[in-house]
Design a protein that fits this description.
The chain is an alpha+beta fold. It folds into two domains: 72 residues, Arc Repressor Mutant, subunit A (Orthogonal Bundle); 135 residues, Endonuclease Chain A (Endonuclease, Chain A), CATH 3.30.870.10. It contains ten helices and ten strands. Strand 2 and strand 3 form a beta hairpin.
Length: 263
């Protein structure tokens, strides 16, 4: 990680970050020495030092006729910022709870980009309290597996449908042969469907040939339909596994349904 950039993300200016890092390396430096070690112009360095001192991030001491500067220990700085951020989030959480008004029917929100879709999926899983239904390809399941394992460990019912093969990450894991690589679904697959607590759903197309997009919603009706879709495929996967070699014979007797399904 770029430490200087990280300090700026904590609220330091570019010059403040340079000065603080210089003092960590050279505690007790004079203003002249800070300028030399940090690369901050001498015409600016004292102004920066005064501002950091006012923020209690830099401390001064007098040695003979020189002022020397020492940094606040970085662990103390980080803990202080952590405490401030936690307090701010708790205050905002309470304030926004009063401010926000729930929508009776959640809208369908478009999520764009592969990483954004996986991030939203992970955020959904983090909020799960009762059950999770997830249908996906091995690549995406591997990304989400640590959360799925943690959810199952704390008592959330996790139901997983894998289109392909992989080591089962959770107890209730079923496998389905991936759809054909040709046909009307080509531009939509792989796909990802996540349903949390029958109240929140994400449906994504992760095709490499088209822009990755997903629909995310807290519309309970959509969430219930998505959950039933996964339950249906889970049930079929379980039945197919138990039928074994008898499955092709049964499928041969329902060719009209096969034409309807596969086109």
């Amino acid at each position: 990680m770029d430490v200087e950039q990280g300090l700026q993300e904590l609220g330091f200016s570019a010059y403040e970050a340079k000065v603080y890092l210089a003092l960590l390396r050279h505690p007790g430096a004079t203003g002249y020495e800070v300028a030399r070690h940090s690369g901050v112009p001498r015409s600016k360095v004292y102004e920066v030092l005064e501002k950091l001192a006012a923020l209690d991030v830099v401390h001064t001491s007098q040695t003979e006729d020189q002022v020397r500067y020492r940094p606040l220990p970085y662990r103390t700085l980080l803990q202080r910022r952590k405490n401030e951020t936690t307090a701010l989030i708790e205050h905002l959480s309470a304030a926004l709870e009063e401010w926000a008004r729930p929508e009776p029917d959640g809208p369908l929100i478009t999520v764009r980009g592969y990483e954004a879709v996986l991030t939203r999926s992970a955020e959904m899983l983090a909020s799960a309290r009762q059950d999770v239904f997830l249908s996906a390809w091995p690549k995406e399941i591997a990304r989400l597996s640590p959360q799925l394992v943690e959810l199952e460990a704390r008592g959330v019912d996790v139901w997983l449908l894998v289109y392909g093969t992989m080591q089962p990450p959770v107890r209730r894991c079923y496998f389905h042969e991936p759809p054909s690589a040709v046909g009307r679904l080509t531009e939509m697959l792989p796909a990802l469907v996540v349903v949390v607590d029958h109240s929140e759903a994400l449906l994504a197309s992760l095709s490499a040939t088209t822009p990755v997009t997903a629909l995310w919603t807290r519309h309970r009706g959509v969430a219930l339909i998505a959950a039933e879709y996964i339950k249906h495929d889970l049930f079929l996967a379980a039945v197919a596994e138990r039928l074994g070699p008898e499955l092709p014979k049964i499928m041969a007797q329902v060719q009209d349904l096969q034409r309807m399904w596969f086109g």
